[in-house]
Amino acid sequence: MNNKGQVLIIFVILLPIFLLIFTFIIDLGLLSIEKRKISNNTYDALEYYLDNIDKEKTIKLLEKNLDNIEIDIIDDADYVEIIVSKKYKGIYNVIYDNEINIIYKGNKETKEIIKG
């Protein structure tokens, strides 16, 4: 008996499913890389802010290293908080409509940084 037609049908049905799964894996990997990039830059910007207390230069530092972000710096008496948000354009976030939000908080006296 000749089974070539049956195998071809199964291959044609399963190939798009495998490609979709592969695409989601790649997209989640790229999302993870973007989150790490934003997190590292936010941490560095908070370190810079705690050393220099210069809001404008800290914002310029973040905007220089990151694209299409929203920055919010909350400066209290003892603490400073930097919030960086970005809409990530990918397949995963088109479906779930997520936004990357990274928050770091630092103590001005001890210069201790807390991820929030």
Question: Main traits of this protein?
Answer:
116 residues; alpha+beta; four-stranded antiparallel sheet; 3 helices; 4 strands; 57% helix
Figure out the total of helices.
3
Major sheet attributes: 4 strands, antiparallel
Gyration radius, in Å: 22 Å
Query: How much of the polypeptide forms β-strand, as a percent range?
Result: 15-25%
Oligomer: single chain
Report the count of strand segments.
4
- Summarize model confidence as the mean pLDDT: 89
Helicity range of the residues?
A: 55-70%
Order of helices and strands: HHEEHEE
Q: What is the 3D shape?
A: rod-shaped
Largest sheet, spatial ordering of strands = 1-2-3-4
Low-confidence stretches: none
| Category from helices, strands and their pairing | alpha+beta
| Euclidean distance between termini CA atoms | 65 Å
